[in-house]
Amino acid sequence: EKGKEAPGATNNSFIKPEITYQTHVQTYGWQGLACDGATSGTEGKAKRLEAIRINLHNPEMPGSIEYTTHVQTYGWMNWVKDGALSGTEGQAKRLEAIKIKLTGDLAENYDVYYRVHAETYGWLGWAKNGEEAGTEGQAKRLEAIQIMLVEKDGQAPGGTEEAFVKTIQ
């Protein structure tokens, strides 16, 4: 009945998964964890991202987060998931682009949005669910990234124009 007590506990009835990520930055090494849309990397310091790890915490449903990076001289790397390293360490190779996606029930209930700060471009638009973000064929380094989960078909955290710039050769 309207205005009466709920039939059971209402606290912690649903916990949204939290996304955390960590980047390896030129000369600085591994940065601290960033989460839910915070910036990982640097701006205005001309330092390249060299690797990334991405994790989900508190997922109440089956699924994982998978990602791949486009690395200087190597191109697109193999897909990895759930905290594995994508990119390189100790090779002085820049990340140039990234794709991130969810799997399982997580993918049916959430969209993963991400955007990158690319050399000479600054912040590009938000990509989602496996789309490319960054550049290809331009030798431009990624300098920073932001990643966040949004409920399925929810509003993008910002503009989605020009998330990826590719030079056709």
Characterization of this structure:
This protein has 169 residues and is mainly beta. The chain is built from one helix and 16 strands. It has one helix at residues 104-109; strands at 18-25, 29-30, 34-35, 40-41, 49-57, 65-71, 75-76, 80-81, 86-87, 95-102, 110-118, 122-123, 127-128, 133-136, 142-151, 164-166. Strands 6, 7, 8, 10, 14 and 16 form a six-stranded mixed sheet that branches. Strands 1, 2, 3, 5 and 9 form a five-stranded antiparallel sheet that branches. Strands 4, 11, 12, 13 and 15 form a five-stranded antiparallel sheet that branches. The chain is elongated and about 65 Å long. The relative contact order is 0.19. The model has no long low-confidence stretch (mean pLDDT 93).
Keywords for this structure?
single chain, 169 residues, mainly beta, six-stranded mixed sheet, five-stranded antiparallel sheet, 1 helix, 16 strands, elongated
Q: Brief description of this entry?
A:
With 169 residues, the chain is mainly β. The chain is 4% helix and 44% strand. A hairpin with a 3-residue loop joins strand 11 (110-118) and strand 12 (122-123).
